[in-house]
Design a protein that fits this description.
Elements lengths: L17 E10 L7 E3 L4 E6 L2 E6 L5 E5 L7 E4 L4 E4 L4 E5 L5 E5 L5 E7 L4 E6 L5 E5 L4 E6 L5 E6 L4 E6 L4 E6 L4 E7 L7 E7 L4 E6 L4 E6 L5 E6 L4 E7 L4 E6 L3 E9 L2 E9 L6 E5 L4 E9 L10 E2 L23 E9 L1
Length: 345
């Protein structure tokens, strides 16, 4: 199914992944992460100075958390409290979308994770402290963690371990969720560099580190860090995950591709499909109810092309050049389409 050394594959048409839904919303501001609240059936996209909220099943807008924004969102399904990774962190009510409080933190918040076993929120920063841990009940800071490097994406096995991509050190940090101590670093041994996306098969204890340089998925044993396999992915990964229902890992890339990796067994892996998405659609999230992968991208348009705030579904934006530059990942500047893409079978 996989051509040697490449990404060409042959997938039966009935089983192939494809874009099954999409929407476009005009607005301004950059983007970074997208987050699916699978319990609350909402999709969160921080953009500019707010968090845009959509119905996860229909992609229809349901509101926004104003005076917020940030890089990513995490939600505690029990308290219905949401958190946006920025400084100060925004704590909000997921039912009303009203801000509850803001939480000043150190470092530079980027990635974010709700850890189910301890019911805590992890906010990641490339500057120390690398992790700020928050109690979602009241927004209090439980502690901080030094990862000795710049964290990107993280995953929990829900059994007391949190695994974190360390982008600048090319390793995976292992954190004890109870003690908030680093217990190990798993080096990628030159097989991949700049890990960004991370998938975890918690049942079989398999990690999928999606790397930028070279564009490779490094598969590791989560128990001891042993490298099991390497597989090619697209260029510019910035997100990934694992679907235990389909036994597939996935990586979203800025080159406009989504790589699907099949775990045939805990020792056998293959690139199952490369799905064409859209350029700059480099972050993603899993809709676990529908086995869908949701991606986001910004498509810049000329300032006079459309009025800010207008919305179209399944529209084709006018041709445009490169995305406006900016300090935020995803660009910052003039108006542009926010593309939400849903990939499924």
């Amino acid at each position: 199914m996989l051509a040697a050394g490449g990404l060409t594959q042959s997938v039966p048409a009935a089983e192939a992944y494809k874009i099954v839904n999409s929407t476009q919303t005009m607005g301004t501001g950059g983007i970074d992460y997208v987050y699916a609240d699978n319990n609350g059936r909402r999709l969160y996209v921080p953009r500019g100075g707010q968090i845009l909220v959509f119905n996860l099943d229909t992609l229809k807008p349901v509101g926004a958390v104003t005076n917020s924004g940030g890089h990513g969102v995490a939600v505690d399904p029990k308290t219905h409290h949401g958190f946006s990774s920025r400084n100060p962190i925004t704590m909000f009510d997921t039912k009303t979308l009203e801000t509850i409080k803001t939480i000043p933190v150190e470092g530079n918040p980027d990635g974010i994770l709700f850890e189910p076993a301890t019911k805590r929120v992890y906010v990641f920063s490339h500057r120390a402290p690398n992790v700020t841990v928050i109690d979602p009940k009241d927004g209090s800071i439980v502690g901080t963690i030094d990862l000795d490097g710049a964290p990107e994406q993280a995953a929990s096995d829900e059994k007391g371990h949190v695994y974190v991509d360390i982008e600048d050190k090319d390793n995976i940090a292992v954190v004890d969720a109870k003690t908030l101590k680093v217990t190990a670093h798993y080096p990628l041994e030159g097989k991949g560099g700049g890990p960004a996306g991370l998938g975890l098969d918690a049942k079989n204890q398999i990690l999928f580190a999606m790397c930028r340089n070279p564009a490779t998925c490094v598969v590791l044993n989560a128990t001891d860090g042993k490298i099991l396999a390497t597989l090619p992915i697209g260029k510019g990964t910035d997100g990934g995950g694992f679907n235990p229902k389909t036994m597939e890992a996935f990586s979203s890339q800025g080159d406009g591709t989504l790589t699907i990796i099949k775990e045939n067994s805990p020792t056998s892996f293959e690139v199952e499909q490369t799905v064409q998405t859209k350029p700059r659609a480099k972050t993603c999230t899993l809709d676990s109810k529908n086995n869908h992968i949701v991606l986001i991208a910004i498509e810049p348009v000329p300032a006079a092309a459309t009025a800010a705030g207008s919305e179209t579904n399944n529209a084709t934006p006018p041709a445009s050049g490169e995305q406006p530059g900016g300090r935020r990942r995803g660009g910052r500047g003039g108006p542009g389409f926010l593309d939400i893409l849903v990939v499924g079978r």
